[in-house]
Design goal:
Order of helices and strands: EHEHEHEHEHHHHHHHHHHH
CATH class of the largest domain: Mainly Alpha
Number of helices: 15
Number of domains: 3
Structural class: alpha/beta
Distance between the termini: 52 Å
Strand content: 5-15%
Radius of gyration: 24 Å
Helix content: 55-70%
Strand order of the largest sheet: 2-3-4-1-5
Mean pLDDT: 89
Shape: elongated
Low-confidence stretches: none
CATH architecture of the largest domain: Up-down Bundle
CATH topology of the largest domain: Zinc Finger, Delta Prime, domain 3
Largest sheet: 5 strands, parallel
C-alpha cells in the first residue's frame, strides 16, 4: 500500500505513522534528500525469498511541492502496480501541489492523508486528550497556557507537555504553579523581543527573529495579534494621557503593571495618533490576508516590518 501523509507538524506526522505501523522495529526510514525515486522504487519492488512484508517511510518528500520539478514517472507506474508485500509512506511537512499526477494517483489508488494546521482550540483539545491518555488531569485554562507559551505551535506544545510528564513522573493533577516553572519561556522571550524590535523600528533585529520563527514554524498570525495589542495599548495610553488620566488610573483601566505602562508610554512618544491608527489598520488588513489568501505568511509579516 502507498500512503502520503502531509502535515505542518512533525508530531502529527509521527502520530499518523504510528496508526499505520504499530511497531517501528522493522521499518526502514529513507530521507528523500539523500536518494532518488529510482532507488526508492527498487527497494519497494524487491521481495525476499521468504515473502516478508516490508515497511518503508520516506521523509522530506519535496517532489510533492509546487516548486519541485523532479520527474515522478517511475513512482506513478509503481502506484498503478504496487508490490503487495510493501507498505510505503511518503511524508511531507509543507504544502502539497494536489494538481500533480502522482498526488492524484495516490488519492485514487492509495491513501492520501492531509491534516490541516491546528488552530488554538485544536491544540488545546489534543493536549488535554494526551494528558488524559497518560492518566494526567489537565484543565482547559492550563492547556491554553501551554499553547500560548508555545506560540500556537503544536510540536513545541507537545514537547512542553512531555517535560511536564517527566517532572511529575506519575499520573496526577497538573498544577498551574508547576506549569509556570516547567514551561520554557525562551520562545516567549523571543516573542516579546520581536514586538519590541518592531515597535522601536529595529528592523535588523526584527528580521533576524522572523527567520527564527520561520525555522520553528511559529504561526505569524499570533505575532500579528501581539503587535496589534501593543499598538492598541499605545494608542489608548496616549489618548488617556492627553485627556488628563493619571498613570495609576491608566494602569488600572488597562490592567497593566507599572513597568509595562512605563514602557508603553516611552514607546508611544515615537508615534503620532495617526501613525498608531494606521499601524492597527495595516495589521487588521494583514491578519485578514493571512487567513483568507495564499500569501506567504512570513513574507507578509516581513513586508509589514519593513514598511516601518
Amino acid at each position: 500500500m502507498v500512503y502520503i501523509i502531509v502535515s505542518n507538524s512533525f508530531h502529527i506526522l509521527n502520530e499518523e505513522i504510528n496508526k499505520i505501523f504499530k511497531k517501528m522495529d522493522d521499518v526502514e526510514i529513507i530521507d528523500y534528500q539523500n536518494t532518488t525515486l529510482d532507488e526508492i522504487i527498487n527497494i519497494c519492488s524487491y521481495s525476499s525469498l521468504f515473502s516478508d512484508e516490508k515497511n518503508i517511510i520516506v521523509k522530506n518528500c519535496n517532489f510533492l511541492n509546487t516548486k519541485n520539478n523532479d520527474k515522478t514517472d517511475i513512482l506513478e507506474k509503481y502506484i498503478e502496480n504496487p508490490n503487495p508485500l510493501t507498505n510505503i509512506i511518503f511524508t511531507f511537512n509543507d504544502k502539497v501541489d494536489e494538481r500533480k499526477k502522482v498526488v492524484k494517483l495516490i488519492k485514487d489508488q492509495g491513501n492520501y492523508i492531509y491534516i490541516k494546521p491546528l488552530n488554538y482550540k485544536d491544540i488545546n483539545s489534543r493536549l488535554i486528550e494526551t494528558a488524559k491518555k497518560n492518566k494526567y488531569k489537565l484543565n482547559s485554562n492550563d492547556a491554553s497556557y501551554i499553547t500560548m507559551s508555545s506560540l500556537n505551535n503544536y510540536d513545541i506544545a507537545s514537547n512542553e507537555l512531555e517535560k511536564v510528564f517527566l517532572y511529575y513522573n506519575e499520573p496526577c493533577e497538573i498544577k498551574r504553579d508547576d506549569l509556570e516553572n516547567i514551561i520554557s519561556h525562551s520562545l516567549d522571550d523571543n516573542n516579546f523581543k520581536f514586538v519590541d524590535a518592531v515597535i522601536q523600528r529595529n528592523f535588523k533585529e526584527a528580521m533576524k527573529l522572523i527567520k527564527n520563527f520561520k525555522l520553528f514554524k511559529i504561526e505569524p498570525i499570533s505575532l500579528v495579534y501581539l503587535l496589534s495589542r501593543e499598538y492598541r495599548l499605545m494608542m489608548l495610553t496616549k489618548n488617556m494621557l492627553e485627556n488628563g488620566y493619571s498613570n495609576i488610573k491608566i494602569a488600572k483601566e488597562l490592567s497593566l503593571q507599572d513597568w509595562q505602562l512605563e514602557k508603553i508610554i516611552n514607546n508611544s512618544y515615537n508615534y503620532s495618533n495617526m501613525e498608531l491608527e494606521d499601524k492597527i489598520i495595516d495589521l487588521c488588513e494583514l491578519d485578514y490576508k493571512l487567513k483568507t489568501s495564499f500569501m506567504d505568511k512570513y513574507l507578509g509579516l516581513e513586508m509589514f516590518v519593513l514598511k516601518g
